[in-house]
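Ticket #4471: structure output looks truncated?

Reporter: J.K.
Steps to reproduce: submitted the chain below (505 residues) through the standard prediction queue, then opened the result file.
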Amino acid sequence: MVAEYVAAVDQGTTGTRCMVFDRGGRVMGAHYVEHRQIFPRPGWVEHDPHEIWQNTRRAIDAAFAAGGVPAREIAALGIANQRETTLVWNRRTGEPYYPAVVWQCTRSEEICKRLLTDGLEPLIRERTGLLAATYFSGPKLAWLLENVPGLREDAERGEALFGTVDSWLIWNLTGGPAGGAHVTDVTNASRTMLMDLRRRQWDEEMLGILRIPSAMLPEIRPSSDARPYGASRPEDTGGVALPVCGVLGDQQAALVGQCCFRPGEAKNTYGTGSFLLMHTGDAPVASEAGLLSTTAYQLGADGECQYALEGSIAITGAAVQWLRDNLGILSSAAESEAVAGSVEDAGGVYMVPAFSGLYAPHWDMDARGIIAGLTRYTTRAHLVRATLEAICYQAREVLEAMEADSGIRLQALKVDGGAVANDLLMQMQADILGTPVVRPTLQETTALGAAYAAGLAAGVWSGLDDLRANWGIDRTFEPSWDDERRARGYRGWQRAVERAKGWVE
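Returned output as attached by the reporter:
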């Protein structure tokens, strides 16, 4: 008899969550642990790999205990992860050579500018579906190889391993130096700038351009595989060895958790950044409007790989954290709803949170954050409301690009992530888009998608119809603004964005 439960680890930019689900997609137990954000220089962002691993162990133990589900009744473990964050560690000792370089980090800017100067962006776009941007893992890894003493020599000898966070966690879960599996899946590999998007194999030409030794790369596997990547060490998963057989980059995991299995279905996840993905079918769609072509998922070794268009926005929820942590004008992120709701509008203020440059659809590494339209009338509440509006305006830019590339006019946008609990934000999103916004019953769809990937491999769910049966609507937010107000607000946003571009000389 197949076990009734599946566990998933969702290792995100600000913390690590473990959740245990039953066959109906209901949460049986959950636990969340934050980790430190390290900013050694302007534009640099790091995490501690050891802290992430230890927090993962803590989250698993606490979630299992909270759910009261014996580990022996859990069929499998799935992983979702912050995608482009780059780690390097020693195969024999398990020691990292350097802190994890986070996806938001801009230290690889000079490497990306060399790629642009050398005229390589058309090749990068055609081969990988990506752009020459600091966002992706390949340039970050190239920076590490150029700057960390001894790393290149160890990498060429096969002693140094590279991975995104999924690879780091799976390697540790399945044994670490004592035979841990060094793997990744097609979704995470597609975010490195090192994988041929169509063949789903490491691309020798891209490795040569960035001078990356192939010996340090993980094996690329399907997102869901009945042949497990490995078995967890019992001491890390409640005293039982669990098959680790599902892994998805966090945004693709949310796409699966939202059951976007048909071409044209789309979701937006509101976290540290925001990520709008539209399922495009079994072949990549080249973007002409500043989006990325990426893998969506591959369910089963014999399953057709599915693809998506993605609009990545670097800073959305992190802008609210900035108001809280850097400016001290909020006591908590949740307070933003009441503060922003105390005024009718932003009072003509626009905030462009280009702290790490602008991602889709602009891709300007030299942009920086600005606040425009300040007057003596402006209050704390106007600034908070302008920050929430910035989240929504950035999503509109991406959605317009997505509709231009796909030729599909979205009838509704599915939403998920921590910020969707903010009713005011969701209503503003519907108003600014002019499109209904649909919030599902379960908003932690990233962890759910990872659980689905693992549970499909382990036989807990027999197919996509089982997953669709679990999806339900909590609330639909209908647009309330008229067209004139929507257009006027968007014109102001576009003017503010133009002022943020090219700020770094």
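Triage note (M.O.): checked the attachment and the full token line is present. Residues 380-406 form the longest helix (27 residues).
Status: closed, working as intended.
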